[in-house]
């Protein structure tokens, strides 16, 4: 299921509420979220990437392993 990049809830791919940015399709739960994204797409795309890299779980896990195996 795609994630609404603005409020981060799961949305159905069948929704009419979508926007294409940088060749990627983004789906939204409401016209408000879509408008919000279109007003400032960079912000929401950046946030998406940051959450992946600095996800608490993977960060902590990776750090620990590195410390004890080397
Ligand atoms: Zn939303």
Automatic annotation (TrEMBL):
- Species name for this entry? Thermococcus litoralis (strain ATCC 51850 / DSM 5473 / JCM 8560 / NS-C)
Top-level taxon of the source organism = Archaea
* Entry-linked SMART domains: TRASH (SM00746)
Specify the taxonomic lineage.
Answer: Archaea, Methanobacteriati, Methanobacteriota, Thermococci, Thermococcales
The record's region (Disordered) falls at: 50-70
- The molecule here is called TRASH domain-containing protein
For bias type Basic residues, the affected ranges are 55-70
- Segments forming domain TRASH: 4-41
Name of one Pfam family that matches: YHS
